[in-house]
Specification:
EC number: 3.4.13.19
Largest sheet: 5 strands, parallel
Radius of gyration: 22 Å
Cofactor: Zn(2+)
Distance between the termini: 61 Å
GO molecular function: metal ion binding; metallodipeptidase activity
Order of helices and strands: HHHEHHHEHHEHEEEHEHEHEHEEHEHH
Pfam family, one: Peptidase_M19
Number of strands: 12
Helix content: 40-55%
Organism: Canariomyces notabilis
Shape: globular
Number of helices: 16
Length: about 475
C-alpha cells in the first residue's frame, strides 16, 4: 500500500469500547471536550492505520481518496485485499508436506510445483497470489498420541520431537523464499509493515494444535514461542493434562466424558503463563466446559484469560451442530472478552444436521457445502456479536474436501465478494479478513507486556530430583 487511506466513505468502527457506554462523568479534571475529541481522532486514525492498513500519515490524502471509492464489487474486493492483509487463522501446509514429501523441500519434486503451481492440496505460491493472500498462521500440528487418554510426559515426548521438526520445516520454507514469507518471530506491527512494504511479504507466525505437543512442559511452550509460535490450541482431538477436548479419536467421536470439567488446575496456570508470554489462547477443538473456563464463566472461581482469545478454525453450532463448533452462549462470551471466532471451511463443520448418532456426531449435508454457506456462518457471528469478532480460519491442507466455490486459497476473493454482496460493509469485511486478528494479537502482546512489567512470575516446571 502507498499513500491513500484505505477505508470506505462511511466507516462504522465502534465509537466506544465495550464497558465504556454511557455519558462520561465530569470531575473537574482531565482534558476538555475539545481536547478529548482531538485525542479521539488521533486514536481512531492510529487504530485504522494498524488494523485496516492506513499509512501513519496525515488524514488529508484520505479525503481525496474517499471521493473516489471503488464502485463494483470486484473493485471493492481488490481494494480491501490490497490494503488489508487477509490472514488465514489456520493453514495445515506443514502436515501436508510431512505426509507427501517427508519434509524434503530442497528438491524439484517439491519446489517446482510449490513455486510454479500444481502442488497437491489447496495451496501453492501461484494460488496464494491469485487469492491475494496476506498471510496465515501456519500450523505446526502433530497428531494426538495413539493412546489419547494417557497424559504422561513419556506418552507425549515424541510429539515434542515431531513438533520441532514441523517448526524447522516451516522455518526452512520461509528462509528458502524470503521474498514471500516474513519471519515467524515478528511482532504484529512489524509483520504488518512487511505486508505493506514493496515486497508485500506474507505475515507468517506459527501455531501449535494441542498441548500434547508441549510434552507437559511450560519450558517447551516458551521455546516454541521463541521460535515463532504465536498461538497454542489447548487441545486437539484428545484431552491432555491441561484441558478437555470436544472430540476423542480412535474412533473419532464426541468426547464421551470430561476428565477435568474444563481446565485442570495446571491448565489454569498454563493459560496465565500464555497470557504472560504473549501467546494467543486458541479454543478450537476444546470442550464447551473448557471454553467457558477460559472465558471466565466456568464452574471454577477463576476469571479466565487476561487476554482476548480466538477460535482459530471453528464455525457456528447453531447452523451446524458439530461438537467442534461454537454455541451461541459461548459466542456471546467471546464478544465480552474481545475475542475472535475464525470460521472453518471443513464441509463437516459447515453443513450438518443432528441425527442422534451413537458417536455424537452430526450427519454431513453435501447440498449445503458451499461458499455461500461459509458466508452464512460469518454473517451469523457478525450479526449476533458484531463483525469485530469474526475472521477466517480455512483449515486448508488439513481437509480433504472443500465447500463448492472454496476449493483452495485462490478462492478467498470470491468469499470476500459474497460478503460484500450480502451487504457487509467494506470496513467490516476488512476487519473480518485480517483486521480483527491483528487487533487480538496486538492486545495479547499488550497484556503480556503489562504482566511482565509488574513482575508476573514465570511458570516453572516441577522436575524430578537429579542425583549424581
Amino acid at each position: 500500500m502507498k499513500a491513500a487511506i484505505s477505508v470506505p466513505a462511511k466507516p462504522d468502527w465502534p465509537a466506544q469500547e465495550a464497558g465504556n457506554s454511557g455519558p462520561a462523568r465530569r470531575t473537574g479534571r482531565g482534558p476538555s471536550p475539545g481536547a478529548r475529541a482531538a485525542l479521539c481522532l488521533v486514536v481512531l486514525f492510529s487504530l485504522l492505520a494498524l488494523y485496516i492498513g492506513l499509512p501513519g500519515r496525515s488524514a488529508c490524502p484520505g479525503h481525496r481518496f474517499l471521493s473516489a471509492k471503488p464502485k463494483s464489487i470486484e473493485e471493492r474486493v481488490k481494494h480491501i485485499l490490497t490494503h488489508t492483509p487477509l490472514i488465514d487463522g489456520h493453514n495445515d501446509l506443514a502436515i501436508l508436506i510431512r505426509v507427501l514429501y517427508n519434509n524434503h523441500i530442497s528438491n524439484d519434486t517439491f519446489t517446482k510445483p510449490f513455486v510454479e503451481g500444481g502442488l497437491p492440496g489447496q495451496l501453492d505460491l501461484p494460488r496464494l497470489r491469485r487469492g491475494m493472500s496476506g498471510g496465515a498462521f501456519w500450523s505446526v500440528f502433530w497428531p494426538c498420541p495413539e493412546n489419547g487418554t494417557n497424559f504422561s510426559s513419556e506418552n507425549h515426548l515424541s510429539s515434542v520431537q515431531n513438533t520441532l521438526q514441523q517448526i524447522d520445516l516451516i522455518s526452512r520454507l520461509q528462509q528458502s523464499h524470503p521474498d514471500v514469507f516474513s519471519p515467524a518471530t515478528l511482532s504484529p506491527a512489524a509483520a504488518l509493515a512487511e505486508f505493506r512494504s514493496s515486497r508485500r511479504r506474507l505475515i507468517s507466525p506459527l501455531g501449535i494444535e494441542g498441548l500434547h505437543q508441549i510434552g507437559n512442559s511450560a519450558a517447551t511452550l516458551r521455546r516454541y514461542h521463541a521460535l515463532g509460535v504465536r498461538y497454542a490450541t489447548l487441545t486437539h482431538n484428545c484431552g491432555n493434562r491441561y484441558a478437555d477436548a470436544a472430540l476423542w479419536e480412535n474412533p473419532l467421536r464426541k468426547a464421551p466424558h470430561a476428565v477435568w470439567g474444563g481446565l485442570s488446575p495446571e491448565g489454569r496456570r498454563l493459560v496465565r503463563e500464555m497470557n504472560r508470554l504473549g501467546m494467543i489462547v486458541d479454543l478450537a477443538h476444546t470442550s464447551v466446559d473448557t471454553m467457558l473456563d477460559v472465558l471466565g464463566k466456568g464452574k471454577h472461581d477463576w476469571p479466565g484469560s487476561e487476554a482476548p482469545v480466538i477460535f482459530s478454525h471453528s464455525s457456528v453450532y447453531a447452523i451446524c451442530p458439530h461438537p467442534r463448533n461454537v454455541p451461541d452462549h459461548v459466542l456471546d462470551l467471546v464478544r465480552e472478552k474481545r475475542g475472535l471466532v475464525m470460521v472453518n471451511f471443513n464441509p463437516e463443520f459447515v453443513s450438518c444436521v443432528d441425527k442422534g448418532r451413537e458417536d455424537g456426531l452430526p450427519e454431513f449435508v453435501p447440498g449445503n457445502s458451499t461458499l455461500q454457506q461459509v458466508a452464512r456462518h460469518v454473517l451469523y457471528i457478525g450479526k449476533r456479536i458484531g463483525f469485530d469478532h469474526v475472521g477466517l480460519g480455512s483449515d486448508f491442507d488439513g481437509i480433504q474436501d472443500t465447500p463448492r466455490g472454496l476449493e483452495d486459497v485462490s478462492k478467498f476473493p470470491d468469499l470476500v465478494a459474497e460478503l460484500l454482496s450480502q451487504g457487509v460493509s467494506d470496513y467490516d469485511v476488512a476487519k473480518v479478513v485480517g483486521g480483527n486478528l491483528l487487533r487480538v494479537w496486538t492486545e495479547v502482546e499488550a497484556v503480556a507486556e503489562r504482566m511482565q512489567k509488574v513482575g508476573e512470575p514465570v511458570l516453572e516446571d516441577d522436575l524430578p530430583g537429579l542425583f549424581f
